[in-house]
Amino acid sequence: KTVLVLNGPNLNLLGTREPAVYGAQTLADVEALCTKACAAHGFKLDFRQSNQEGVLVDAIQEAGREQTAGTLAGVVFNAGAYTHTSVALHDAIKGSGVTAIELHISNVHARESFRHHSFLSPVVKGVIAGFGVPGYALAIAALAGMA
Ligand code: DQA
């Protein structure tokens, strides 16, 4: 089965963006780590990034259809700032029925109060936050544990 690793706004800037918060690794490094983690669990990887909310909604809906068809194990979703703003992404996860893991590189609860609320947490299987880029591998392992 495939795992969709879906990254939202500004994650294309990883490596240069606030390295004290997000580390020095680039999105290409994240993809390489996810490729390894997926291979270790017998998954194929579909790795994507978009700065646009509607593109992320479309990707979640597509993932839901693939999961229903039996070809997708679930989604590892770092929605970036849309985590804290997007009813549309909440509705997409809920409406598609896809198994999603919410992922944050940083510990959002140790940061500004506007990052403490997530519209996604009520509709995902679980949340991984604060473990840096290796958190992506933890999320993929979690999906493997559910399979
Ligand atoms: C983030 C945390 C969000 O609050 C922020 O807007 C991001 C990245 C993280 O991975 O730690 O863009 O999701």
What key attributes describe this structure?
147 residues; alpha/beta; Rossmann fold; five-stranded parallel beta sheet; 5 helices; binds 1,3,4-trihydroxy-5-OXO-cyclohexanecarboxylic acid; 3-dehydroquinate dehydratase; DHquinase_II_sf
Topology (elements, then pairings):
Blueprint lengths: L1 E6 L11 H4 L4 H14 L3 E6 L3 H17 L2 E7 L8 H10 L3 E5 L21 E4 L5 H12 L1
Parallel strand pairs: 1-2, 1-3, 3-4, 4-5
Helix pairs in contact: 2-5, 3-4
What's the helical proportion of residues? 25-40%
How many separate structural domains? 1
Query: Over all CA atoms, what is the radius of gyration?
Result: 14 Å
What is the beta-strand fraction? 15-25%
Ligand species: 1,3,4-trihydroxy-5-OXO-cyclohexanecarboxylic acid
The overall strand count is 5
How many individual helices?
5
Helix and strand run: EHHEHEHEEH
Shape: globular
Text of the CATH class: Alpha Beta
Structural class: alpha/beta
Distance between the termini: 10 Å
**Order of adjacent strands in the largest pleated sheet:** 2-1-3-4-5
Report low-confidence residues grouped into runs of 5 or more: none
> Major beta sheet, specifics?
5 strands, parallel
GO molecular function, one term: 3-dehydroquinate dehydratase activity
Binding site for substrate: 78, 84, 91, 105-106, 115
Catalytic activity: 3-dehydroquinate = 3-dehydroshikimate + H2O
Pathway: Metabolic intermediate biosynthesis; chorismate biosynthesis; chorismate from D-erythrose 4-phosphate and phosphoenolpyruvate: step 3/7
